[in-house]
Amino acid sequence: MSGTPRHLAVADTSIDVTLIALAGWTVTFHVALVAGWSRTATLVVATTVIGGLLAAFGRLPATRLSGPDAPAHVADARGGRTIWLVVGAAGVVSALTTLVRPSGTAFVVVWAAVLAASTAAIWVIRSDRRPRVPVVADLPTWSIWVVAGLAALLTLVLVRQDLDDVELINRSLYIEQDAGPFPTRDTVIADEVFASDRPENPATSIEALIGSVAALVPVNATTVAHLWLAPLVSALGVLALHRLLSSMRSSAPALATSAAWFWLILDGEVLRSLGNHHAPRAWQGKAVLLIVVLPALWHHALRWHRKGDRRSLATAAAAAVAGVGLSRTGTFVPLLVVAVVVVAAWLAGAESTRRTPAMALVAAYPVGAGLFGLLAER
What we know:
The protein has 378 residues and is an all-alpha fold. The chain is built from 14 helices and no strands. The protein is globular and about 55 Å long. The termini are far apart.
């Protein structure tokens, strides 16, 4: 990116390399389940695949961005009121989701309402062409690294254990101790005798990654998850949010990121809160999806539609693949991101609309994994 400070370029590269590595591991792991590969064979193949993906990524030309990614400004009072109404509607829907915990048809209705609110917000922001004025001065960009370091440090002491750990960490420990094919059934009560109490398809790959890494290092899978993965995810999450806010033209992305993350860390002490799925549970796949993958997917989808950056298209596809390996919600949440960006591109005009068909590449793996999971359950 033209004019990007070196330390922010390092942050961008760190996020994207992580996404590509997770995507390569996820695809290899899914093939390993079908082929019955051992843990060692899977690690060898995954290393080769990830190396090839990174080499191919490095050869893709990067598009230099300029005007459209300049810092944004806030709309005047009239436009601001409309935006706040839209955001407020989305907040009400989110609150109902938390309180009611819908399932089945109600779950679909809630997600449709969230998608409609997001689309309406895009329409309002897009149609607002009145003069804009800056709001506040931003913090220095290097301060984002301080926040990332503090987030990683606090993650080591703010630990909220969860019932999911009984199954997830246990599976990682099982893989650490058993070098054979990856388990597909229960590992808590018996040695793959019973069916798992969690849906088996599509299988998430993050637990296998933690167990496989633990088998190579002198610490166990629990330590890898809590003391290695969680701080890394928290730090990358800060960098990913800052990058997203910058690409969304925030007038003060560093300040907004700092305020948001300190609030999320404090809010994480409450069980049913937004912060509970951030630093306090950053070793879980669902948290990695929320903290790192989705902000990166938003960022790269926007870059692709604005400038046709092929690196961003490839990284967005990698983010979608990585999401499938992190959580089963990764089979449909990235599709919502793609849908909203496509609608925004359609509103932006013909040039962005021509880039829309390529977004099918981003949705391909989540759609395929989701269909495979549905068929496997029948």
